[in-house]
Design a protein that fits this description.
Structural class: alpha/beta
Strand content: 25-35%
Number of strands: 12
Largest sheet: 7 strands, mixed
Strand order of the largest sheet: 6-3-1-7-8-12-11
Length: about 180
């Protein structure tokens, strides 16, 4: 199981990167950190700088065909930066076009909205994205984890760090199945 983790050069919520990353490793998979720039990404604990992590590949170097699934961690600044990068948005859309599963938590659905892949889908997110999801044609629900199979792929979403256990269990089961 090869899993892409797409993050911006800074602003990813650290726990939303590290816990899913460890879940992939725990399931015998290989996570790869993909970003819009090479080098290291700066993670955050809410608004405070946390650790940095080495980028495995840039989004330009990465190919959807090399991965079994995509994880989009949150953090407010992370998906906001990703949705402004055409290559990152195209990379995300590629997983939907290829019918490969995608998991997104917290504010990460902003990138999905920009990729125009939430129309007709049911998903959850941080509550402040509710109107954005609806305006993009999706149905927003307030659930710990939502698995939506009504589309070209499976979409797994969760609301916040408190949902990480359920989120990780759901996406690992889907990605390894």
């Amino acid at each position: 199981m090869q899993v892409a983790f797409l993050v911006a050069p800074e602003g990813v919520e650290q726990v939303e990167l590290t816990e899913p990353w460890q879940a992939v490793i725990g399931a015998g998979g290989t996570p790869k950190l993909i970003s819009t720039d090479s080098g290291r990404v700066q993670a955050f604990n809410h608004l405070d700088k946390a650790d940095t992590f080495p980028v495995d590949q840039t989004v330009e170097q990465a190919s959807v065909g090399d991965f079994d699934g995509l994880v989009l961690p949150g953090g407010v600044a992370n998906p906001d930066a990703l949705r402004m990068d055409e290559k990152a948005v195209r990379f995300v859309r590629g997983f939907f076009d290829a019918g490969k599963p995608v998991a997104a938590i917290c504010h990460a659905p902003w990138t999905l909205i920009e990729a125009d892949v939430v129309r007709g889908r049911m998903l959850t997110s941080w509550p402040s994205l509710r109107t954005d999801v609806r305006n993009a044609g999706g149905e927003w629900v307030d659930e710990q984890v939502k698995i939506c199979n009504h589309g070209p792929n499976t979409l797994i979403t969760s609301r916040k760090p408190d949902d990480l256990k359920a989120f990780c269990e759901a996406f690992v089961a889907e990605f390894s199945g």
